[in-house]
Amino acid sequence: MNAHIRTAPARTQIPGPAAPRRRPRLEPLASSAVRLGPASLLGGWQELNATATIPHCVDNVDRTGVIANFRRLTEEAPRQDFRGFWFADSDLYKTLEAIGWEMGRSGTDRWVPMLSELADLLEQVQKADGYLNTYVQGKPDEEPFSHPEFTHEFYCAGHLMQAAVALHRGAGDERFLAIARRVADLIVSSFGDDGRPIIDGHPEVETALIELYRETGEESYLRAAELQVERRGHGSLPAGRFGSQYYQDHLPVREATEAIGHSVRQLYLAAGVTDLYLENGDQTLLRAMEQLWDSAFGTKMYLTGGHGSRHRDEAYGDPYELPPDRAYAETCASIAALQWCWRMLLATGQARYAEEMERALLNAIAASIAHNGTAFFYSNPLQLRTGHDGSSEDAPSERLPWYDCACCPPNLARLYASLHGYAATSDATGLQLHLVAAGTFTAENLTAVVETGYPWDGDVMVTVRGRGELAVRVPAWATGASADVTAAKLLAEPIPGEYLRVSCDDGATVRLRLPMTPRLVRADDRVDAVRGCVAIERGPIVYCVEQADLPEGILVEQLRLEPSATIVEEPGQDGVRLRLPALVSPLDTGLYQPYAPTSSTGTSVTVTAVPYQAWANRGPGAMRVWLPLA
Amino acid sequence: MNAHIRTAPARTQIPGPAAPRRRPRLEPLASSAVRLGPASLLGGWQELNATATIPHCVDNVDRTGVIANFRRLTEEAPRQDFRGFWFADSDLYKTLEAIGWEMGRSGTDRWVPMLSELADLLEQVQKADGYLNTYVQGKPDEEPFSHPEFTHEFYCAGHLMQAAVALHRGAGDERFLAIARRVADLIVSSFGDDGRPIIDGHPEVETALIELYRETGEESYLRAAELQVERRGHGSLPAGRFGSQYYQDHLPVREATEAIGHSVRQLYLAAGVTDLYLENGDQTLLRAMEQLWDSAFGTKMYLTGGHGSRHRDEAYGDPYELPPDRAYAETCASIAALQWCWRMLLATGQARYAEEMERALLNAIAASIAHNGTAFFYSNPLQLRTGHDGSSEDAPSERLPWYDCACCPPNLARLYASLHGYAATSDATGLQLHLVAAGTFTAENLTAVVETGYPWDGDVMVTVRGRGELAVRVPAWATGASADVTAAKLLAEPIPGEYLRVSCDDGATVRLRLPMTPRLVRADDRVDAVRGCVAIERGPIVYCVEQADLPEGILVEQLRLEPSATIVEEPGQDGVRLRLPALVSPLDTGLYQPYAPTSSTGTSVTVTAVPYQAWANRGPGAMRVWLPLA
Fold first, then answer.
1. For an interface test with A, which of B246, B297, B312, B388 has the most A Cβ atoms less than 10 Å from its Cβ?
2. What ranges do the domains of chain A cover?
3. pLDDT digits over A410-467, tens only?
4. Domain A27-236+245-383+415-422 falls under CATH 1.10.8
5. Could you report the per-residue pLDDT of B180-198, keeping only the tens digit for each?
6. Quick one: pLDDT at residue A408?
């Protein structure tokens, strides 16, 4: 019972968060084969995560009663009430997953005693048949899996499995893996081919069961995941207040090709279905996922990589319904979107999936965490108005240290701890770099050392050791990208939205220059909510204007941009800030008035735009990503 | 116990829905002193209400178990579960209120037997102490008034009181009045000056208690209402998921001058506070209401007179947060807004309050009911997109015959049945007409016979019998209005947003000509959601464009208006339709793309605009009130 967790990784090759058994189009580089430079933006986040975010999560799952929810079940008669939401177990599991990846990344042993204690605790709480869920176990009248639309039992089990896989990969742990396997075995025996054909209201277990299969080789886990996928969409769950689509139970997955319903559930399901394709090669699944992806990323995604327009049911809206002020854009949805895109990238090798990973990572996800690593947005709007009522947790004006529904903070922790596992792949020809970042990337035959100040600087210098093909993704916005190579042969020019491909000899250098000129972006005309507006981007970074940078007496709502305005770059704080002139439009009087042609007038002011990822680090205040044209 | 309800009005003067005891700035004309022409739009609605909507409500409160909720409590041990929402009693009470007003209006006796049966039933269910609430009475473990933030007990009691007042005024009934008084007496004794200082989570009882005071002269009801108003806003209710503002408990009423929280609760409270001012003359209440009104109507109201931008908590948004697609704009909120405006009009005599009554009545409220009178919108958006997911009751693509939460249909029924009570007032000088409609309006010294096809036609002919001053409201949009009078002296010219005032001799005629040229309207620049768009109005009527009127292959999202386009009027179906040319813009490709200056191109098409009040009577489909400019 009290065996200690090992402190060293079990193996030198630590697979990343998704490690297909069946060879995909692109194979993920082992996370141990990637080292992100600590001075790089992404590497810096990993350090901050290790030193601030993960400890903060550990403290808060304890403080908010998540661990007490387990502990009370070890007593004869639980004296304490269950605390938090019914899926609070998953807050602990996501934190454990973060710790697993972080131990693999840095070799830290600071959490080893805690892990041993927690393994003891979970072993005590887990029932003889493998069942483990502190919400249901604390309700004597509740049969396990009797309300799968509500209780999140599979969901919590899935997060336990993912934690166990991460702790096994990153820390060589066997105890959590054994606990998770007992849970998975119960799911197999209860809900397998001959079991009750139920599904969970919140998809998550699909991708988790498949990763557990990948880690253990146990085929029944893959089959259990397949059954979860195939049983979904037949209306087996009661529809509830928000309809079947809320549970992703409205249509079978091959027909459910419009992104709809609760966005996190939609995106976790899509990740699971794509994992299933990666293992079983069923092309009908891939085709459905491609259509679904076009719907989500082509008609329902925010410029920042946020997903989900509606607060009411945390759901996707209609196509092009993308209000910046009421963007729900849950942090977890962008994380789930990144996880899904990664799997689509492995399946197809297409740059667009990596493009969207980068968009989400550098904008919606990056914005959701404060500079100190210990305060978070749950919802990531693209606009706060003057006079915003930020008193609700649902749409606060500032990042909060924690949430009653605390899904997002530990989700960020597990993503950042495993981030190096999402950067690069290999195939028979060589190495592919998808997320451009300073660091070292090692495939079988070649290692790429990347030096760059990206995403603030567009100069990307790659030095290659060994031989083989190197592919570097050229972002779709990078019109005018150029490349110089030495000791190497250019196979494909740097075309935006494709890959620069180079055949390298040992010692080759590849220098990619991405033009970082700030640019104005507009949305499809059908995005009514930002008609007549532009956003400012520089490289992959979306910018915003904050009230904090405006002179007294000028409201952010008064600014009008001249599209021909010269934008000046100011490197320094928050990467690169931008300065540009804007007209200050007088405030209207009267909510509705007769239309009359007008031309913009008003005084001029120089405006500072900051990366959206940096907003709201100077107190609450109005903010806009989309700015009206003069 | 079994006395029959009387079939004839108790008195020839039937007070309207709000009949102040203390003389207000303007006194409402008794509803018996107003007869709306049956061929007029408003009078036609009243006929449809009597023949279709009220019978439909009667059927549905029965069918959905509302009456069964009462009946089960007359059995020894209730065998049936409570059905519907916990405030379902109010569905019956609002239907009864409609019947009361309708009996007063038309003298119908069709519901007399039903009323007698229902009076029997309510007398049986009412407890000895006066308590009457079928949700709480059916829960043996629930103490009355133990969860006032949730149970709506005061709210249901308020609707019972309003029903009783209407039945007393309109039908001479004494039995419902006695039942309602016993409920009110219980509130006085339990929550009076020496009672428990609680308030209800849903304001409503304030205005109801005051009307019951007005009808009975019982001063303790006024005091009970005053206590409800004064106790509100001290955070006495648990804040809950949506915060204290959801319950209107965030600030005392004199400080709560921003419209915020659940919009129906906000507006019912405001009506109650204004009623309190009308009786106690406390100027600090009126000042707070004026500020609150400016916030609601000046920064948070839809062009259609809808209120409430957010689906999540049915709440007002931030100032200028007015998305047309996700407008919640609950039917009940517009009804409540009209009721509040009426009381503000009585208090101040200012035309702007009548202006907003008309806006709501002819647009948001009128649109919420189908041409057949038996299908309803709960939410009244100003835009449905192509591809709208209309599967949710919350944002359906078509009117539904009934709702699980059925507050709106019987609220429409009670409004329409009492509509003639909101049209005109009198003061020492004479008669004021606020809602222009064909009909007969009788004040003490003069009667005005109005002949007009308004709101479709701008020619308003008034013939006066008797002598005195006649005031006719000139809408704020009616630039160029003119008047001719005979046997009368013009005291004030017809200035838009004010009153035409005429001193009349017997036989005088006043002819007001309101220019009905269609016009384009824009919103304050801060209403981001409709930037670059205009709406079409003609007189007080807001128009929209429906997919149903467009040629195959052209989507409503492709239309661009030329602001100088000639708009042609087509009288006929739905009052007056409009025809105008529009550009058909090609659909964009790509959700986000580099900004480049463009000019509108595309083919031209002639577009039909129909009154918003008539939309969605030809099957589901896309619709827009706000149309982008070319």
1. B312
2. 27-236+245-383+415-422, 424-513, 519-628
3. 999 999 999 999 999 999 999 999 999 999 999 999 999 999 999 999 999 999 999 9
4. no
5. 999 999 999 999 999 999 9
6. 95
> Is the CB of residue A391 less than 8 Å away from at least one CB of chain B?
yes
Top residue of A531, A545, A591, A598 to mutate, by most chain B CBs within 10 Å, is: A591
What are the chain B neighbours of A242 within 8 Å (beta carbons)? Answer: 392
Q: How many CB atoms sit inside 10 A of residue B606's CB?
A: 12
Cα–Cα dist B244/B239, whole Å: 5
Chain B contact for A85 (CB, 8 A cutoff)? no
Structure tokens at B620: 């589901």
A533 interaction partners in chain B (CB closer than 8 Å) = 528, 531
> Each residue of B578-608: pLDDT tens digit?
999 999 999 988 999 999 987 767 799 999 9
Q: In which residue are the tokens 């008794």 written?
A: B30
Q: What is the pTM of this model?
A: 0.96
Structure tokens given for B130: 């006066």
Question: Is residue B182 a contact partner of residue B130, using CB atoms and an 8 Å limit?
Answer: yes
List C-alpha distances in Å: A535 to A304, A523, B256: 10, 9, 36
CB within 8 Å: A588 and B526:
yes
ipTM of the complex: 0.94
Closest chain B residue to the Cα of A250, Cα to Cα: B391
Cite the DSSP H helix spans in A500-570. none
Residues in CB range of B81: below 8 A, 6 or more apart: none
CA-to-CA dists, residue B49 to B18, B411, B416, B545, angstroms: 20, 11, 7, 27
Choose among A391, A522, A628: nearest Cβ to B531: A628
Residue with tokens 């008064």: A558
Residue B370 and residue B358: Cα distance in Å, rounded? Answer: 19
Q: What is the structure's pLDDT at A574?
A: 82
CATH of B27-383+392-422, one of 1.10.3470, 1.50.10, 2.40.128, 1.20.120: 1.50.10
Residue B300 distance to chain A (closest CA, Å)? 8
Domain A424-513 grouped into CATH 3.10.620:
no
Q: Which residue from B293, B131, B282, B269 is spatially nearest to B207, judged by alpha carbons?
A: B269
How many angstroms separate the CA atoms of A286 and A343, rounded?
Answer: 11
Q: Single out the residue of B484, B508, B357 nearest to residue B425, CA to CA.
A: B357
